[in-house]
Amino acid sequence: MTSEGREEILQAVSSAVLAVTRHLSVREVLQVIVRSAQRLLDARYAALGVPDEDGSFAEFVAEGLTDRQWEAIGPLPRQHGMLGAMLRDGAPVRLPDLTKDPRFEWWPKAHPVMKDFLGVPIRDGDEVLGIVFLANKRSPGGFTPADEELLTLFAAHAAIALTNARLYERGRELAMLEERNRMARELHDAVTQKLFSLRLSARAAETMLESAPGRAAAELDRVQRLAGEALAELRAVIVELRPAELDRHGLAETLRKHVRLLDRLHPARVTFGCDELPPVEPAVEVALLRVAQEALHNALRHSGASEVSVRLRDEGGRLVLSVGDNGTGFDQAASRGLGLVSMRERAESVGGVMTVDSALDKGTTVRVEVGR
Fold first, then answer.
1. DSSP 147-200
2. In terms of CATH architecture, what is 246-371?
3. Using an 8 Å Cβ cutoff, are 368 and 288 in contact?
């Protein structure tokens, strides 16, 4: 290989590794590893499986398959056949025809036909963190020894990024646990005391209904006030709680799953699009998720739209969320409902700006722009 060719390959690996290390969510890291490996070696199909302790895969991501193909294929694969052999042996495998190898067993009926195959373990010392494998190289001749060397080099760097993402998520989980404990103390110290006072006031009112109706009415007023205060404090604590899905999957994947569910439940077509995103502050993730959920609720319940789209992208260092529909729209000057105030407050709470573009019969787009 010439020095120019070697330099070009190293630059390609460096670009792929940088794409991976920009992400801190484990799920996002897995997805970017797969996309980067697919592009790096010009493969039609790429996948990465992370084993669990029950003979299956805790995570399995792939590129080259449509959502419809994924649904037809069915459950995640188990650790059998070639994948199981690679987990046991921990060594790279390069084949001109996967189906002719004795370790190959079967795949589901809807599975695409794969021929030339290259698989490399992602290792952390002696531990196999996962397997990245490619199939059906687009250029003729299949995968070469140089391809195997290149993917092995990339996998070594990907292992560092994956380990860092896991450590980051564990640290974030510990921080969230500490935060939840703090909120539990607040609930006990504030809301519980108010509920106790409310109960005493209700009992006092009950005993005075006949003998002192005036004092009973005063106690009932106190009950109403205490109940309102308790409800306000409870809402404040609930708003601070971070959905568990964000800790497990990150903002992009959580939104993708939410949109996919809504698309199944409603007659309107609901779609999601997302750029590759750098790390996002936890508070920003929560705010954008809640704004998106509220905007989607409005679009699907009130707009009469046949199409609703959610987009998440990075624009010059600013994170932009947009939820648009082709529905009836509304007169913004005459509307104070639709949760617009709460959405705007959520955006502003993390230093963001929310704008709403809507007019009668012109559809609606809610846009939030915020620093990461």
1. HHHHHHHHHHHHHHHHHHHHHHHHHHHHHHHHHHHHHHHHIIIIIHHHHHHHHH
2. 2-Layer Sandwich (3.30)
3. yes
- Which carries the bigger pLDDT value, residue 279 or residue 92? 92
**Region 318-328 average pLDDT:** 92
Give span(s): CATH 1.20.5.1930, the chain: 172-240
- What is the pTM assigned to this prediction? 0.51
Distance CA 155, CA 119 (A): 10
> CATH 3.30.565.10 region(s) of the chain?
246-371
CATH code that applies to domain 3-170: 3.30.450.40
Query: Which amino acid type is present at position 77?
Result: P
Residue in this structure with the two tokens 């509220």, named with its chain if needed: 294
The residue behind tokens 């998520």 is: 169
Range name among 117-131, 178-192, 261-275 with the lowest pLDDT average: 178-192
- pLDDT over threshold 80, residue 120: yes
Which residues in the chain are classed under CATH 3.30.450.40?
A: 3-170
- State yes or no: pLDDT of 307 exceeds 90: yes
β partners of residue 51: 57
As to burial, measured by CB atoms within 10 angstroms (0-12 exposed, 13-18 middle, 19+ buried), residue 107 is: middle
The mean pLDDT of 200-219, rounded to a whole number, is: 76
Q: Please give the average per-residue pLDDT across 53-75, as a whole number.
A: 79
CB-CB contact of 50 with 163 (8 Å): no
Contacts of 351 (CB under 8 A, 6+ apart): 370, 371
Mean pLDDT across 32-55: 85
What is the CATH number assigned to the segment(s) 172-240?
1.20.5.1930
Task: Report yes or no: 23 and 32 within 8 Å, Cβ to Cβ.
Answer: yes
